[in-house]
Amino acid sequence: MENIAEYLKAERSQEWRDEVRKSMKTKLRLEKVRVQMSEEDPNVRNTNNIEVNTGLSVEEAVLEAQRCIDCPTPTCMTGCPVGINIPKFVKKIETEDFLGAAAVLKDTNGLPAVCGRVCPQEKQCEAQCFYTIKLGKPAVAIGHLERFAADFEQKSGQIAIPEVAKSNKIKLGVVGSGPAGLAASGDLAKFGYDVTVFEALHEIGGVLKYGIPEFRLPNDVVDVEIESLKQMGVKFRTNFIVGKTASFEDLKEDGFKAFFVGSGAGLPRFMNIPGENYNGIFSSNEYLTRVNLMNAANPEYDTPVHSGKLVAVIGGGNTAMDSVRTAKRLGADRSMIIYRRSEAEMPARLEEVKHAKEEGIEFMNLHNPLEYYADDKGMVKSMKVQKMELGEPDSSGRRRPIAIEGSEFILEVDTVVVSVGVSPNPIVPAALPKLEITDWGTIVVDKDTMQSTTIPEIFAGGDIVRGGATVILAMGDGRKAAAGMHKYIQEKIKAN
Amino acid sequence: MSKILEKEYFSKNVAKIVLDAPEIAKSRKPGHFVIIKIGDKGERIPLTIASSDPEKGTVTLVVQKVGVTSDKLLALEVGDEVTDVVGPLGEATHIENVGTVLCAGGGVGVAPLLPIVEGFKKAGNRVITVLAARSKDLVILEEQMREFSDEVIIMTDDGTYGKKGLVTLGMEEVIQREKVNLSVVIGPAIMMKFAALTTKKYNIKTYASLNTIMVDGTGMCGACRVEVGGKTKFVCVDGPEFNAHEVDFDQMLMRLGAYKDQEYAAYQKYLETEETVA
Ligand SMILES: Cc1cc2nc3c(=O)[nH]c(=O)nc-3n(C[C@H](O)[C@H](O)[C@H](O)COP(=O)(O)OP(=O)(O)OC[C@H]3O[C@@H](n4cnc5c(N)ncnc54)[C@H](O)[C@@H]3O)c2cc1C
Ligand SMILES: Cc1cc2nc3c(=O)[nH]c(=O)nc-3n(C[C@H](O)[C@H](O)[C@H](O)COP(=O)(O)OP(=O)(O)OC[C@H]3O[C@@H](n4cnc5c(N)ncnc54)[C@H](O)[C@@H]3O)c2cc1C
Ligand code: SF4
Ligand code: SF4
Ligand code: FES
Question: How confident is the model at residue B278 (pLDDT cuts 50, 70, 90)?
């Protein structure tokens, strides 16, 4: 794909695409209204774990696909970190070739059923859609359509397993089974490598399993994708911590020639304010891990969790939204978001904020916690909160929150979930003293090949490089790294 | 999956279990622990690796039955598989030849103390071990401790065995009698707190190995956090061993109680269903 524009043009001028375009007047397409994905009743769903979005019907998907005018210069694609050929898959849906649409998605994205659900589309592909930028109208629902095609394929039982090159018997290791590791392993398997994914936990999937809740991303959806990778020959070793269970040196002795590190940003941050270590105060990682990975809310499982009645979640990102909605589902009377900026600055996906509001989540924006208080058993019982106002923009470009003196008040709580960000997982950097890392603990890599600047056989991507990003960026990194590793290995072979 | 190759009871509620885990056996150092999980619905719990045999590819755990998961583990027999075993976790113990080492253990801390006692002995130290329990039938691992200790002092609260009194009394007796260069204490938080206060009085460098509640054991959740020297530390990755004089034991004690009622209820329920099954 030397010249993407040329390639897209050639694709677009294929006969079938011409025909679809001509089958309906552009004016008619532009008049259509964006489809609304149907959702479970907010007052029912906030008591169970079923997926909130129910998916598009065939009719809805085709109607929505008709809105896309198949632009000669599809700006939407510039917003997608993995460059999915968006008009092509959308037009496949319009012709009701849903499996064909799924195949287009899988050309560049190994986990379309996941991305269709969790990508912040309003900041990525949909933000760059012709409708958004030129017409000021709601974008083509690219995310919904992506999920539709991927789900259709999953349900059809005819999942296309990507073609795998003849095995070259070269062993490569992938550290971590989050989206970055999964994407890398898929591409490496396609190139013909003997790939083993090492995962520290007892489940495969990283944040997709232990973080993002079932009501947003059912585990089954992730498992289908993992199954495809297994069929492509990728091996998985759970309960294996690279750097602890075995060192990189041990693995090299075992024949591994290079590694992709996708170990994520697993270290939770706290605010270091008084009382933060009282019982009933959790990191969002602990809270979500107990509920999602360990199934703690189900009495048949052994792991316990606090099902508080007055729950405060500190933060405004996806993790905070997932925690606060989980608390509601565990039976909280009040589930509150405490966020120091205003709603406009919230990093969470728009849809999640909307869903949270529908489910009865209270938003205390422009509020910041100062201190926690506990009862005589050390259980948190209240917290001191201060009101904030927005000042001048800071280095992140967002308006800086400034405390309003004298506005402090006491809020009654029995559970607090601290969701103010994560730091890179330190296990791999600690195991490789020569690895160049930033002051933040992220691994420094060449941005085109994702190769470590100091250890040639180490490649890295996802949150361990970006310090916290998105599923699709992690996957994009994984794919880039796979290409980089392929090149590295092939050059080494040639040199010998 | 790790197969149980050997199992031997030391007393009614304490047994040694030898697991087939070649990679862990090879990488393990004294002080390291594993996290195990039994069955799909099981909980993850930390257990110290008492010893390992890299040649045979085995690790040995010494497990005391205190609740649902430890009970489930001891219910498994030779040939059964432990669903998940991950490790080795934590930082290894700083074992050196320092002279005389005073080791003190009580309650759930006696099992994890065993490899430390062994380690210090093998490094050439004079090792004096104080074991504390409420009464005679709760004293565990005495014989195993004797193997690696120059002297073992038993303390019981009710005086039914050894000397009557708390662990600190036994420690104090040793400290008054001879020069102690280092002390290691493991046990209930309250015991470690007073043991640390005792050695502090005499300015003896002391390590405490903290047995906080854990989930992942890899630094991902913060469940194991506790304040040491005024800073929040994660026991699973920064520890489990810390300078005992800097640990906020009151906070640790409080945090250990986080699920006490739920754990107790779960164990009662488990025991009932066990009985109906049996
Ligand atoms: C609750 C929550 C909600 C989110 N919601 C969204 C969303 O809606 N949309 C979105 O785009 N993004 C979302 N994100 C962010 C997104 O999930 C991450 O950016 C993404 O998962 C990063 O992928 P990764 O592969 O780099 O790491 P991870 O998914 O973190 O996976 C890393 C894996 O590596 C394992 N590991 C670590 N060290 C080792 C080792 N030494 N050996 C073996 N294994 C190791 C870990 O156990 C883990 O499974 C969310 C994150 C969270 C926590
Ligand atoms: C690093 C580390 C190493 C350990 N090594 C060993 C070992 O080698 N052998 C061994 O038998 N145990 C060891 N423990 C303790 C062991 O993990 C707990 O006994 C176990 O988690 C109990 O689980 P359970 O489900 O059986 O009981 P639960 O139902 O979880 O608990 C039953 C009772 O024990 C108390 N309890 C639970 N966990 C702890 C704890 N960590 N410390 C003190 N009291 C607790 C509870 O409050 C409750 O009253 C270690 C703990 C840590 C953190
Ligand atoms: S992968 Fe994400 S950004 Fe790319 S097209 Fe799909 S939803 Fe949009
Ligand atoms: S920019 Fe919008 S309308 Fe144009 S091709 Fe992309 S999705 Fe279709
Ligand atoms: S057990 Fe989760 S961070 Fe230590």
Answer: very low
